[in-house]
Amino acid sequence: MNIVLLEPEIPQNTGNIGRTCMVSGNTLHLVGPLGFSVDDKYLKRSGLDYWSELDVHYYHDFDDFISKNNSSRIYMATTKARQLYTDVVYSIDDFIVFGKESAGIPEELLLQYRDTAIRIPMIPNRRCLNLSSSVAIVVYEAMRQQNFAGMQIEGALHKYQW
Q1: CB contact set of 39 (below 8 Å; sequence gap of 6+)
Q2: In this predicted model, what pLDDT tens digit does every residue of 40-87 receive, in sequence order?
């Protein structure tokens, strides 16, 4: 799967999302302009030692992203969508786009992807979930649909045995 952050603003969120992508085997796409430097210490701290191993791609803007990924199915994660994130069937090659923390995905862009806009249900009159939490929720639903392909399903104790 491909996780796309459109103009992310908070390095800690991006670092944590990178960590989620790394442990789930997904690719991270960062679409600028970014609200921080990729050398930011908070980004690195949140991403732990995963950042150097992460499959991450950078784009100047959304047009640059589309020009390089125009043959893929693109989902737009937004609080404004009509269909739930659990209502769609994800493919391993899909891209899921998440907007910046302060404003989400611009509505003009959402209208271009109205059939693939998805949302996480929430209590009415609340702004939104944290970006990193939203990504994790959707990623793990998509991975569940793929039967967690390539992931370790069973855990093991360090000192004892189950």
Answers
A1: none
A2: 566 666 555 667 788 999 999 999 999 999 888 999 999 999 999 999
8 A C-beta contact, residue 24 and residue 140:
yes
Dihedral sign from CA coordinates of 11, 14, 20, 23: negative
- pTM beyond 0.90: the answer is yes
DSSP state of 121: -
Report d(CA 60, CA 98) in Å as an integer. Answer: 16
68 neighbors 2 (Cβ within 8 angstroms): no
In order of start, what are the domains of the chain with their CATH numbers?
2-145 (3.40.1280.10)
Q: Which two tokens stand for residue 134?
A: 């939203």
Instruction: Give me 6's structure tokens.
Output: 């459109």
Which of these, 106, 88, 33, lies nearest to 64 by C-alpha position?
Answer: 33
pLDDT per position as a tens digit, 103-151: 999 999 999 999 999 999 999 988 889 999 999 999 999 999 999 998 8
